[in-house]
């Protein structure tokens, strides 16, 4: 592992440690602003994906957006035509804004929202879809002008974003969690190695079990933690102090 990639991984885990000690959603915003700057991000938002009956401003959890852009986006109801939001509803994988498809000729409003965002230094972005097992949909979307997005930085950023969402959710709606103690020692081990960036094949070799068994433990952990994917399971396991790195 190169020194640079090691530094990104270290920053991700230090970021998680700092979030654990924060007392409010406002301080989470401040910490996110400081840490995401390392990747070139200037603005971000954590929001639910509104139903047809909901307004965009009703489902926003946390944001660091230019005030004028938030007002324009809300007034124009851009959430209904935003290609980034549309892709969020249809994938569980993080993606760059440039990967959200739209047709400029047949979808002029989609082109409009992407073009107008650039006026507020929101040229490029990275989005983390959130899908809860009870049907809840949300996303954490980040943007800037000169972003550091590569195969080296994305895994760290993915974990940081997921943990930030989980921490914000916990602070805004502090419901007790039941069932975390149901994780078996082997499930905790597989999540720990996943947090360290190991694949199922790598983890199987380390633990002396098959790749298929590792995958089964990860799937079981996701079900018990109410997580939609491995990264969310890792974030929740770390939040509940079930694993440590």
UniProtKB/TrEMBL annotation:
Keyword 4Fe-4S: no
UniProt cross-references to InterPro entries, sorted A to Z: Sig_transdc_resp-reg_C-effctor, TF_LuxR_autoind-bd_dom, TF_LuxR_autoind-bd_dom_sf, Tscrpt_reg_LuxR_C, WH-like_DNA-bd_sf
Alphabetically ordered keywords of this record: DNA-binding, Transcription, Transcription regulation
SMART domains per UniProt: HTH_LUXR
Gene Ontology process terms (BP): regulation of DNA-templated transcription
Residues of the HTH luxR-type domain: 176-241
Any GO MF annotation of the entry: DNA binding
Signal peptide (UniProt feature, chain positions): none
UniProt keyword DNA-binding, yes or no: yes
Protein name listed in UniProt: LuxR family transcriptional regulator, quorum sensing-dependent transcriptional regulator
Source species: Microvirga guangxiensis
């Amino acid at each position: 592992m190169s020194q640079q990639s090691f530094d990104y991984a270290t920053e991700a885990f230090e970021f998680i440690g700092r979030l654990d000690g924060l007392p409010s959603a406002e301080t989470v915003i401040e910490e996110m602003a400081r840490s995401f700057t390392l990747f070139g991000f200037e603005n971000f938002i954590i929001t639910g994906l509104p139903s047809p009956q909901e307004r965009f401003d009703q489902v926003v959890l946390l944001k660091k957006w230019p005030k004028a852009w938030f007002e324009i986006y809300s007034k124009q109801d851009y959430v209904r035509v935003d290609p980034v939001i549309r892709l969020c509803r249809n994938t569980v994988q993080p993606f760059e804004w440039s990967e959200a498809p739209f047709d400029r000729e047949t979808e002029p409003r989609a082109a409009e929202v992407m073009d107008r965002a650039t006026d507020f230094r929101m040229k490029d972005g990275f989005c983390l879809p959130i899908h809860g097992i009870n049907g809840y949909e949300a996303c954490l979307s980040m943007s800037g002008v000169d972003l550091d997005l590569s195969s080296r930085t994305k895994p760290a950023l993915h974990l940081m974003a997921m943990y930030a969402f989980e921490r914000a959710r916990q602070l805004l709606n502090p419901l007790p969690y039941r069932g975390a103690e149901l994780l078996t020692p082997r499930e905790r081990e597989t999540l720990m190695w996943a947090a360290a960036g190991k694949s199922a094949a790598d983890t199987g070799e380390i633990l002396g079990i098959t790749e298929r068994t590792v995958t089964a433990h990860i799937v079981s952990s996701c079900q018990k933690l109410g997580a939609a994917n491995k990264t969310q399971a890792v974030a929740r396991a770390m939040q509940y102090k079930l694993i440590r790195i």
